[in-house]
Structure formats: structure tokens, C-alpha cells
Amino acid sequence: MKSDRDFLQVEHARAGDYNMRVDAELLHAASEGRGGARIYEWDGPWVSLGTSQSPDRDLIDPAAIRWVRRPTGGKAVLHGHDVTVSIACPLSSLCPDSRKVTDVYRRIIAPIIAGLNGAGISARLAADTPFGRTKGRTSDCFSHISPIDVVDATTGRKLVGCALRVTREAVLAQCSAPVGMPLVDPAEVFRSPHVPQPLEVGKESLVASLRRELASFLGTNENVAENDNPLQRDDGLRPR
Amino acid sequence: MNVPADLKYTKTHEWVKFDGDVATIGITDYAQSELGDIVYVDLPEPGRVLNQGDSFGTVESVKTVSDVYAPVSGEVAEVNGELEASSELMNTDPYGRGWLVKIRFEGTPSELMDAEAYKESLKG
């Protein structure tokens, strides 16, 4: 996809409600033809819930941790120790049919996989490895592996939690890659949580690699301005 | 792919069955097969007024939330409450028990395809 209006942004750690609001704006901008991506962190421990999840049902104690609802599907993700990437594109640039969600998923996740590979991590879609589906009853995203999850090609370990929102006009992917140990014990947040296993790569080298791949995917300049919300800018001041 | 001859279809793969001034709406067999296992559906409250083309709800499958669109304008008369506990009916019986909403429609719906045109569109 190529558009001189597309943008890539690397941002400060922020609160979850801010991050979700800007991601929703990202989807809206993509609906109007402007693709974009954000690489960001969270200002402490947060949980993001999938659209259909419920804090009372899916968290041990919703009052014990800050939580926010994502515009995307999937299960709950514990944040604060991760790098999160959001990508939004006009659907026409990926796949004209909004119902072909697996095709859309494969295409939009490609720069994430390439970014992991560029940082020295052997990442693949689970469907392209011998590692099959695992299904649990827990609400924790990292306790499940589906064929469209990004896993370690050698061990099958899930590397990235990723979920989508697809409309007639655009698609938003939100992807979380843990780069450290959780800031709170997942066992205090989820019933039957996963065993935390951060990526064996430095955050800076991962962000640098993701930045290169996302810039290439979007056809924009990777030397972006940092730490402000591009969607609040005038188009003439886009971060290029 | 099952495409019943007595229904009308949209480009976004919803089907419509007209009965007097009520249009029953669901997603097609093609749509459910592409979406995969549907785990959740969010539908509007009865009484909501929709314009043709409006998003009236979402379905979730394979970690993806997808919008569904109104093929006609009008007021939501009824929603399929059975889907709240059994969203898989959209996969197993998309033209029957997997219906989504009934809309008391107004005007003459446009841009709907008949079964033959919809089948052709799937080839593209």
C-alpha cells in the first residue's frame, strides 16, 4: 500500500483509554483512505479486553487493575511489559472482501512477523508451522494459540497477541509483544493464566525493526516524529 | 456454496428475505465460511431506526470483530435472541435459525442482487 498521507508513529507510554481512543481514530482515518501505524507502550499494568469480553466474567477482580475495552476481538491482554503495535489500512489496499478475515489477517500481520524476524526472532504464523491450535477456558489471550497467531517457529510459543476489527472500508490490527516480565502477577488478574515468557530481544532493537517493516508496509518514511498524536495534526504537518 | 434462489443479497454478503413489509436479514453461507467460527454477535435493540448501508451490529470470529450492514432502511422489529447463547447457529444454519434481525422496511430497497447475480459476484 502506498499513500503520501500514511504515517507511522512511535509514542510515549500512555494510559489505556488514551491508547484505545487513538486506535479507534486510526481505524476512522483508514476508513477515509489514510493508513497508519502506532508503536506504543502503556503507563503501567493495564488489561485490554476484547469487544465481547466482560470485566466481571473475565477478570478475577476488575477493581484491582486498570482495564479498557479494545475495538478488536479476541481475549484479554495484560499490558505494561509489552510493545503494542496498531496498524490500520483501507481495506481496498489489503483485500477487497471484508469477510475474508483470514486473508486480511495474514496480510496485515506480515510486517509484524517481518519485524520480529528482523530482530532475530524466528516468528511464523502458527498455521505455517507444525504447531496446532490450543484452546483453553481462560480469558487470557496468551493461553490460547490459533492458526493465525504468531508463534516461535521452533518451539510453538506464542509471541504476539493480535486481534482485528474489520469494517466495509478499513481494518485495524492491535498486536502486543511482551518484552519483559509482567508488572503484576497474571495469576492475580486471570484465572488459569499463561506462564509469562517475554521475547528474547531488547525492546529498542525490536522497535527499530518493527519501525522499518511498518514504514515499508505503509510506504512511508520511518524517520518519524515521536510522541504526539498524528491524528490531531493538520494534514500539512503530517509526521514525515 | 449454498445460495437460496428466493433471497436477495448485498455486496457485503448479507441476505434478505422479504415478507410483506418485514425484511429478515442474516449473513450468507459464503460469509460464515470466510469468517470462521462465530463466537459472539452484538445486535441492536428493537426500535432502532436504520438507513440502508448502516452498520447495525458486529460478529466476532477468529479474534476479529466484523460489522454487519443493513440492506434496507427501516425500524428493527425483532432480533434473534437465540444467538446470544448460540452464535454458532450463524455457521450451522445461516439461512434459518442463524438469522440476525427483522426490519420493518420503508421505501424500495436498491442495489440488492438476486441469487444468480450474487453467485456471479462470488466468482470475482
The end-to-end distance of chain A, rounded to whole angstroms, is 16 Å
Q: What is the name of the CATH topology of chain A?
A: BirA Bifunctional Protein, domain 2
Q: Whole-number average pLDDT of chain A?
A: 88
CATH superfamily of chain A: Bira Bifunctional Protein, Domain 2
Helix count of chain B? 4
What is the number of independent domains of chain A?
A: 1
Q: How are the strands of the largest sheet of chain A arranged?
A: 1-2-6-10-9-8-7
Largest sheet of chain B: 6 strands, antiparallel
Q: Gap between N and C termini of chain B, in Å?
A: 14 Å
> What shape does the CA trace of chain B take?
globular
- Principal-axes shape call of chain A: globular
Binned, the helix content of chain B reads: 10-25%
Write the layout of secondary structure elements.
The complex is a heterodimer of chains A (240) and B (124).
Chain A: E1 7-14, H1 16-31, E2 36-42, E3 46-49, H2 55-58, E4 66-69, E5 77-79, E6 82-90, H3 101-118, E7 123-125, E8 150-152, E9 158-166, E10 170-178, H4 203-218
Parallel strand pairs in A: 1-2, 3-4
Antiparallel strand pairs in A: 2-6, 3-5, 6-10, 7-8, 8-9, 9-10
Helix pairs in contact in A: 3-4
Chain B: E1 8-9, E2 14-19, E3 22-27, H1 29-35, E4 38-42, E5 49-50, E6 55-61, E7 64-69, E8 74-79, H2 82-85, H3 89-92, E9 101-105, H4 115-123
Antiparallel strand pairs in B: 1-2, 2-3, 3-9, 4-6, 5-8, 6-7, 8-9
